Amino acid sequence: TEKVRSENIEDMSVLQAVSIVLDRNPEL
Prior knowledge:
Blueprint: H1 2-24
């Protein structure tokens, strides 16, 4: 379960980074 938790946290951070990039570059 710890591995799944860490993976989920990493996925969330990645999603946040992607969302920020999309917010800065909506054309993409």
